[in-house]
Please model this.
Amino acid sequence: MMTINISEILSAPSVSRTYTVCPGFERLKLRRQSYPVSHKEDFLLQVEKREDGSLTVAGETEIRILMPCDRCLDEVEMTFPVHIDRKIPLASSEDTDEAPDKDELSFLDGCMLDVDKLVCDEVVVALPSKVLCREDCKGLCSTCGANLNHETCSCGHETSDLRMAAIQDIFREFNQGK
Ligand SMILES: [Zn+2]
Ligand SMILES: [Zn+2]
Model:
């Protein structure tokens, strides 16, 4: 787990500091699943306390995660650019009436800045609705589970093809009958 103690920054009226950080996790928890991280790297995280009492946290990195293809379950390496650019009004701020919501503050616990949470938050918003190893992934055979990208099985996929052909025949007859 990667956290930085920023008590020095929080107690200063106005200061900016740059830290070299790296996500501390080996797996990333997303959508109640956990996926292995295949690549992460050191990056610079700039933490700035402004005179108006706000705290900004900014940094850029990239992370790669192995996720299963939605159709064939093969592992797919997904690359996520991470752009951290967060600003929170601190509790001691006099200019802000509104308290920051809990989610905004969840990466700051007391004076500990949670780098893992910052990175994870960015991946969560960038998650695609579908993970595919390739656009035309053929998926798994619903009968025997064979990966149809790599092999053909003898489960008789023509059954569904025949049914489809039959439906098309009915449509054709219907249209001709008009
Ligand atoms: Zn696939
Ligand atoms: Zn099969």
About this structure: The first strand starts at residue 3 and ends at 5. Residues 138-178 form one domain. The first helix runs from residue 7 to 11.
